[in-house]
Amino acid sequence: MKIWKRFRKGACCPFCHTAAQLLLQHEDFAGVAIYWCGACQYGFCSPMPSKSYLRHYYDSRYRTPENFNDAVMHSRLVRAEAQWRFITEALGEIPKSIKLLDVGCGIGAFVAHVESLGYAAYGIDDDSRAISWGREHLTDSLGPKVPSNFHLPQLIVLSHVIEHFTNLSKALRSWRKARYIFFEVPHAPQEIILSTPPVSHLHFFTPNSIKKLCATVGLRLIRLNTYGMTLEEVLSGTRDRPKHEYFAVSRPQGNGNIIRGLAEWF
């Protein structure tokens, strides 16, 4: 009860600094609530869990052996191909001389895909099991830290990563030396948060809140759209094919369950 009373005191949207609406207690993080800013169409956690709490959570509940198998690898490779197509459609022909860094790379599917096309790429992740599995099955260009020859990449890839950052603006600004940022996040409007239990996420994005985020940190959006299943399919559970088969399906009306964006620093 004391925790719930503390939630009732409210939280301010980090983008527009107006009072946000309390939605619900977070099911995965004790003592954390999810708030919603109607003006920015953005959901966020408050208070943010500590880094040590999150590390223990991810190691014990989020990173499981089920994440490392051939079916997952195939799904990630299909998604990586769709993501690269999105990037090249926005930028046109990309010189082979550029370097790409995948932050939070998981098993390294995106790195493996662009390497197969002749690009220099590297992936970093703090999940040692994912790195080990990826190095065995996909590519050696993975590790826990950025190697010295990738300290100045031209393109940063953040695929299903930024929703896990505690300090979102600071984390993004740490990559200002790169020219481009690609990101993919779940599309999570208010009805999704309330109907589908959140899993490990600290931020809940819509296309509008992605625009707010980019404006806040100093990024210029080049391309933004939604892909995948429709939100109605997600809410009703009516998808009729494997999830990865939806990765490349564009939803021009902003009704897909995945948001993809490409931006560059001003």
Secondary-structure blueprint of this entry?
Elements: H1 2-8, E1 21-25, E2 33-37, E3 42-46, H2 51-62, H3 70-91, E4 99-103, H4 109-116, E5 120-124, H5 128-137, E6 142-143, E7 155-159, H6 168-173, E8 180-186, H7 190-195, E9 203-204, H8 207-217, E10 219-230, H9 231-236, E11 250-251, E12 256-265
Parallel strand pairs: 4-5, 4-7, 5-6, 7-8
Antiparallel strand pairs: 1-2, 2-3, 3-9, 8-12, 10-11, 10-12
Helix pairs in contact: 3-4
Key terms:
4-stranded antiparallel β-sheet; 12 strands; 33% helix; 266 residues; alpha/beta; 8-stranded mixed β-sheet
Describe the structure.
With 266 residues, this protein is α/β, with parallel strands linked by helices. It is built from nine helices and twelve strands. The strands form two sheets. Strands 6-5-4-7-8-12-10-11 form an eight-stranded mixed β-sheet. A four-stranded antiparallel β-sheet has the order 1-2-3-9. Helix 3 (70-91) packs across helix 4 (109-116). It is globular, with a radius of gyration of 18 Å. The mean pLDDT is 93.
Brief sketch in words of this structure:
This protein is an alpha/beta fold and 266 residues long.
Residue ranges: pLDDT <50 for 5 or more in a row? none
Q: How many helical elements?
A: 9
What distance lies between the first and last C-alpha atoms, to the nearest angstrom? 46 Å
Q: Got a strand count?
A: 12
Mean pLDDT: 93
* Strand order in the largest sheet: 6-5-4-7-8-12-10-11
Overall morphology: globular
Characterize the largest beta sheet: strand count, sense, and whether it forms a barrel. Answer: 8 strands, mixed
